[in-house]
Structures are given as structure tokens and as C-alpha cells.
Amino acid sequence: MTSTVLITGCNRGLGLEMARQYAHEGWQVHACARDLDSAIELKALAQNQTSITLHQLDVADDNQISALASQLSGTAIDLLINNAGVYGPKGLSLDQLDRQTWLDVLNINTVSPLMVVRAFLPNLRNGAMKKVAILSSKMGSLEDNTSGGSHIYRSGKAAVNQVVKSLSIDLAGEGIQTVALHPGWVLTDMGGPNALITANQSVGGMRRVIERLNDATNGKFIAYDGQIIPW
Q: Bridge-partner residues for 133, per DSSP?
């Protein structure tokens, strides 16, 4: 039986690589991007992989989330991956922090994953695997923060970790497992040229973590290499 995954933020980087790898493994992939017109690589991938279905989805737009949920009503989803996210401005000092910019990043990185999960709960309930993965970052770890700075990005990822933890408790009775994933420092547009691993390595590792997700690791914060990250 073919497994089905829905992935947000597939226009580039990790989301694009996730769509590629899951399609290669024979999954039915629902790949979402905020702007399909500019998602050149994703559209080229979908042309070569008939198992990939493309959807336009801005995760910060509740109307678009609802529309896609209606479109996929009755479709069983085994795995939902909330990958879409932004870093926000880098290198800001305390004096340069802007309230609206901060709220915009929190909206995408923290609020939107929960809204997406809520919208597709009926699909997950009909799935065989019943798994939710939300991309976080080690930069959201309180214990790991020894350098300060990056207030906007760090706070959003720390907050989404609480979303993961609560969802893991809320949905456990339905057999739905939820995990926060640290993808590593990846060579993507967001990660920059000094990153340590490729998107292929990161996604391959995260796929293994998701595959092994069970009751014992439900609600945990796990790196792409399987290591548990402290909150």
C-alpha cells in the first residue's frame, strides 16, 4: 500500500529535497509551496515524478489552509511535515529589533504549524502511520544557547517546541505521534555557504528519525542524526 506525505515549504532547500526523496521511495507526495510560479525546481521535479502533486499554500494564510484541506478532504495522510519557515533578519542588535518583523516570523514558524496540523487532522486520523514532524532548530534549545543573539529566530523555534510537546500529548490517544526535528546546519539558502551538511544528508537522517518514531520518542526534540536535543 502506498504511503502519503504532505510537506509544506517545498519550493527549495529541505522541502524540495524531502519531496524528492519521498517520491523516490515510492510515496505519494503532496508538495506545497507559497508561490508555485517561482518554484522552478519543484515543478521540474514534479514533471519527472508522477507521484508528486503540487499545491500552492501560504501557511500564514488561513483561507489557503482551509481551501487545501477541503481539496484533500477524504485523502488519508500518513505523514505531515511542517517544513515551511523563515529566519528573519540576521545580525540585528537589540536596538534594531522591530516588533512587526518579530511577529511575522512567529506567525510563520510557530503559529502556522499548529494551524496546518489542525486543518489536516481528519486526514491524519485516516492514515496508517499517523505521524507529524515539525521542523525546529537547535537554536530553539534554551540549554544550547550559549552565544545569545538571534532573538527572533530562537524564540520562534523555542515556542514551536512547546507546540510539538502539547500536540504529542493532545493527540497521543488517537495514535498520532508528533516530533520536533533539528535538521542540522544545512547548505541551503537559509543555512548559508558555511554549513556543515548537505540537504541530502539532513533529509535522509530526518526520514530515518521519522520512520523510527514511536511512543517512547513521541513529543521529543530530535536531531537528524538521531540525537536527542535538550529543550
A: 81, 179
How distant is the alpha carbon of residue 84 from its chain centre? 6
How crowded is residue 199: how many other Cβ atoms within 10 Å of its Cβ? Answer: 23
Can you give the three-state secondary structure of 15-81, one letter per residue?
HHHHHHHHHHCCCEEEEEECCHHHCHHHHHHHHHCCCEEEEECCCCCHHHHHHHHHHCCCCCCCEEE
Contact status, residue 40 vs residue 29, Cβ threshold 8 Å: no
pTM reported for the whole predicted model: 0.96
Distances (CA, A) of 157 to 72, 161, 214, 226, 231: 28, 6, 23, 19, 11
Q: Among 182, 183, 175, 166, which Cα is nearest to 219's? A: 166
Question: Can you read off the three cell numbers belonging to residue 13?
Answer: 532547500
Q: Return the percent helix, strand and coil in the chain, to nearest 5.
A: 45, 15, 40
> 92: closest CA among 154, 155, 149?
149
What's the rounded Cα separation, in Å, for the pair 129 and 178?
Answer: 11
| Rounded Cα gap, residues 62 and 122, in angstroms | 17
* Mean pLDDT within 79-84: 98
Q: What is the pLDDT of residues 15-58, one digit of tens each?
A: 999 999 999 999 999 999 999 999 999 999 999 999 999 999 99
Taking the C-alpha atoms of residue 14 and residue 95, their distance in angstroms, rounded to an integer, is 32
